[in-house]
Amino acid sequence: MRGGVPAFEAKICPPDQLAARRAALPGPVVFTNGCFDIVHRGHVTCLAQARALGGSLIVALNTDASVRRQGKGDDRPVNALEDRAAVIAALESVSLVTWFDADTPLDLILACTPDVLAKGGDWPVERIVGAADVLARGGRVESIAFEHERSTTALLRKIRSL
Questions:
Q1: Cα–Cα distance between 114 and 18 in angstroms, integer?
Q2: Which residues form the Cytidyltransferase-like domain (predicted)?
């Protein structure tokens, strides 16, 4: 920690710097995305498995507005983007964290040209945004099977029932 700022904060990368920062990462570079609103065991396990597919892992987060457009509920996200980015950046498996305001991360995928595109097991390969582009460049697309059935929605339902 330097000057009170934890080292992991350096992993937070504005979208307009992603292509340049990606160039400095050891390959193969893996890309995944999501809301990661209330991080749970399922999230961290999936991220660790995604990282194991390559030498670096880029995680793109939906902005708060993008999360709201997904219809997850009026009170979502619970945690603001800057907080979600810091928590994800603090994970050992994560190399860079960025964000996108669109409904999908396609522009980021095209900008950073990952070698591997990964999503959780609830996403079949043919539905993963950017899959065709990554495959056309000779990359891989992986749908990572869930080891721990967890969901933020279920967790919030449990909290609210207390």
A1: 11
A2: 31-123
CATH at residue 110: 3.40.50.620
Structure confidence at residue 107 (pLDDT): 96
Q: How far is CA 14 from CA 45, 115, 148, in A?
A: 25, 20, 31
The CA–CA distances, whole Å, from 25 to 5, 57, 94, 150, 161 equal: 22, 9, 11, 30, 44
Instruction: Write out pLDDT tens, residues 51-97.
Output: 999 999 999 999 999 999 988 777 889 999 999 999 999 999 999 99
Q: Is residue 102 part of a domain?
A: yes
Q: Are 103 and 139 in contact (CB under 8 A)?
A: no
pTM score, whole prediction: 0.89
Domain that holds residue 147: 15-161
Please report whether residue 53 resides in a domain. yes
Q: Tokens for 125, please give them.
A: 């390969």
pLDDT recorded at residue 94: 98
CA 8, distance to chain mean position in Å, is 16
CA separation for the pair 51, 58 (Å, rounded): 9
Q: Tell me if 60 is assigned to some domain.
A: yes
Pairing of strands 116-120, 96-100: unpaired
